[in-house]
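Re: folding output
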Amino acid sequence: MLSPLWSIHLAVLLFGLAGLFGKAVAQPAWVIVLGRTVFAALAVALLVVWRHRLSVLWQVKSSQRWRLLLAGAVLALHWTTFFAAVQYSTVAIALLGFASFPVFVALLEPWWFAEQIRRQEWAMIALVTIGLLLVVPEWRFEASATQGLLLAVLSGALFAVLALLNRSIGALPVLTSTFWQNTVAAAVLLPLWWWLPPVTLTLQEWSALLFLGVVCTALAHGLFIASLAALPARQVAVITGLEPVYGIGFAWYLFQEQPTWLALAGGACIVVATVWASLAKPQHG
C-alpha cells in the first residue's frame, strides 16, 4: 500500500503523463478523449461492482443531476481542446497553457459565488500572463505553436469552469462523480463516431487508450483524492504544481521535445503562479 505522499506524487506524475497520448495516438483529439472517458467509466463501474457498492452510483440528489450533466459536457470539451493543443504544438506548450487555469478561477469565482477578488490574485494573473507571452517562440496566429497555446489556454478556462461546477455540485462520493462525469463526456462525443469519417485504431492505439483511461484517469484520480484526506492542503498544492514539470520531462525524453530557455522561463512563471494560487485557495482537478 502506497503512503499518502507517494500516492500524490504518482497521481500528479500520471496526470502529467496523460498529455503524451496526444502524440502517441495518431488519432483526432475527440477519439482520444472518447477512449479515455469510456475506459475510465468502465474501470470505475467494475471497481464498484467488485466492491459490492453499486448503490454508490445512484447517490445523486435531484439538484445535483443537471450540474453533473453539464460538468460531463465541459469535461469532454476540456480534454478535447487539451489534446488538440498537444497535437498542434508540443506537450510542454499544452501543459503550460493549461496551467493558466487558476487565472480563470480567480476571474470567474467572484462572479459565480459572489466572492471578492484579492490583490494577490491580480498579481498571480499578471505573472501567468507574462509566462504565457514567453512560452511560444513568436506570436503569429497562423503559427502552430500559437494555435496550440490558445487551445491550451481555452482548455484551462474550461477546466476552471469544471472546477467551479464541481464546487457548486457539493459533496459527492469520488466514484460517483468520476463515473457520471466520464460517462456523460463519452455520451457527448459518441455521436461523432458515426457522424465523422470512419476511424480505425490499431491494437497499439487501443492499448494506449486503455492505459490512459484506466491508469492515467481512474487510478490517478483515486490516488489524488485518497491523498487529500491524509496530507496538508499546502503540501498537496506544491506537489500538484509539478504536473507540467513531469509532463515536459517525459516529452523531452520520449519525443525529444526540448523547450527553449525562454519557454522554460515562462513555464517557471506559470508554475510559480499556479502553486501560489493553490496555496491561497486550493483548486483540484
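--- second protein (sequence, then structure) ---
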Amino acid sequence: MSLRQRLLILAVTLLAVLFPAAYALAKTYYVRPGDTLWGIARQFGVSVRDLQRVNDLKGDVLYPGQRLDVPQGRIPDYAPLKQQINDYIAGKPATFGIYFKDLISGQSFGINEREPIHAASLVKVPVVLYLNTLAAKGQVDWQEKIAYNSQTDYQDGAGVLQFSARDGDKFSLRVLANLSITISDNVANRMLMRYLGRDNIAAFMRSLGGETVFPNGQNISTARDMGLYIQAVLDFYEQHPELGRRLLDDMANPIYHVGLPGELPERITVAHKEGDIEGVANDAGVVYGSRPYILVVMSKNIQDLDQAFADIARISKIAYDYQEQLAAQGY
C-alpha cells in the first residue's frame, strides 16, 4: 500500500470519527426551481442540519443551479422505539393503531396499523387535500360558494356553522376548507363532501394507497392509511408550495392541540388533525422536531376521552424524545 493510500485512509477515518453523520459525500446535487432544503434532505435521507453544515449554509434560502454536497446518511434502528411504545400501551384497555415514519430516512413501522378504527375527523385531511388537488389543477375555484342545506349538511358536534348557518347561506370553498381543518367544523366538512362527491373522494384516497376506504359506507380507516394521507399532504406541498404551505399552516394552527403536541415543547410545530367520537380518540400529523416524522395514533374502546388523548400525547413524546436523541447523536 502506497503512502498516499495510507494517508487517504487515515483522513477518511478521522473524518468518520469527528463527523460521523456527514463524513462521506454521497453525491453532488444541483438545486432546481421549487426545491427546499427540507425536501432535498428528505429526498436523500439526511438531516437539514447536516446539509447546512456540509455546505456552510447559514439559513434555508436556496437558488436554482446552486451546488449542494449531499452527505451520506445513517439509517437509524427503530426497533427500540417500537418496543417503547408497545411497552407503554401494553395492558391498556383501548385498542391502538399506530403508524410512524421518519421523514429523513424514510424508515417506518406500525403497531396494529391495519386495525379498522372509526376515523372521526381525521377524514377531513384527505377531503381537504382532494379539494386542494383539484384547485392546483384549476378544476375548482377557491372563491366558488356553496349554499347550506340543513337537510343534507347539518351535523352537531364540532364547529360553528351548526349554530350560525341558515338554509341558503353561501360559503366559499376556501372558508369551508379552513373551517374543516382549523376548528374541525362538521357542517363545513359535510358541505365539502357533498360538493366533491363521496365516490370521488374515495377514489382519490385509494389513489394515494388507501386500503380501508369507507367500508360499507362507514367512516372507517386505519393508522397505516392515515399515514399515507399525511405523507400525501407533504408530497403535495413539494409539488405545489403555495397551496401546500397554506394547508400545512391550517393543520399547524387548529384549536385542538392536546394529542400529538400535548407534551411537546411549545416551540415545536405540529401540523396535525385530531378527531374523536364516543369510544374513539385519534390524532395524525407531522412533528417538525430536529428529525421530522409522521405519527398517527388511533384508538378505540376508550373509557375516558381525556385519558385517551393523554395517552396519545405520551406516545407522541416517546417518539419525539427518540428522534431528538438520534439527532443529538448525529443521525
